[in-house]
Amino acid sequence: MTLKTFTFYTIVPLFLLASCKDTTNAKKAPVQPQKTIVTDTVAESRKIEEEKEEFVLTEENAIEFFFNYNKTLKEDTVKLSTNFGDITIELFDDVPYHKANFIYLTKKGYFNDTFFHRIVKNFIIQGGNADNVETGRKRGQIGRYLLPPDTRKGHKHHRGTVSMPSSEIDNPHMLASPFEFFIVVTKPGSYHLDGDYTPFGKVIAGMDVVDKINSQPVGQGDWPLQNIYILNAEVIK
């Protein structure tokens, strides 16, 4: 992130000079109130803070950012509140980039008002997208980036595993789409996904809700006939 430089303007009071014949009665012109200087300073400070908040993730900075962000994290559990009930997810500590990404997006409020937008019967439910303007706006503010796969930690796609789909655009290396995730419904699991997709967590409460969502009727492209909302996502511990 590059901060724009700025300049403080010094307000210099001007003094009116009295006539040489009446120096004893000379009067100074009113000095411009100092509060103007304070106001300008506050405005400049706000501008700097706004610029700091404009940090955007890119292909170039995402890995370094999440590497450092993960070091600050003590939380590993996220609760998704849906219109079918709550799903609680515990994130794996040894998949640091994907864990940090999921917590970061949760804290940014990204998942709020997105959908479980893809349902494949007895296989998966997939969330994190929506056909509304707000979701696109939030993605634009957060940034455009992909995450590398992290498939060698021994995690498998058991039932209840939370994993990250790969991007469909120009993606021979199976880089993960960071804004979306899927939950395995298959009993005992969908192990043909191992090695291609990155498991980064598991459902520890609410698999009945996952099953209920998976049972909903779908239309073309596996999109549910009725929207299934992620009303709120929050880091709980």
Automatic annotation (TrEMBL):
PROSITE patterns: CSA_PPIASE_1, CSA_PPIASE_2, PROKAR_LIPOPROTEIN. InterPro entries: Cyclophilin-like_dom_sf, Cyclophilin-type_PPIase_CS, Cyclophilin-type_PPIase_dom, Cyclophilin_A-like. Residues 74-235 form the PPIase cyclophilin-type domain. Residues 147-167 are annotated as: Disordered. GO terms for molecular function: peptidyl-prolyl cis-trans isomerase activity. It catalyses: [protein]-peptidylproline (omega=180) = [protein]-peptidylproline (omega=0). It is an enzyme of class 5 (isomerase). Signal peptide: none annotated. Its EC number is 5.2.1.8. The keyword DNA damage does not apply. Pfam families: Pro_isomerase. Keywords: Isomerase, Rotamase. Belongs to the cyclophilin-type PPIase family. PANTHER family: PEPTIDYL-PROLYL CIS-TRANS ISOMERASE-RELATED, PEPTIDYLPROLYL ISOMERASE DOMAIN AND WD REPEAT-CONTAINING PROTEIN 1. PPIases accelerate the folding of proteins. It catalyzes the cis-trans isomerization of proline imidic peptide bonds in oligopeptides. This is Peptidyl-prolyl cis-trans isomerase. It comes from Sediminicola luteus.
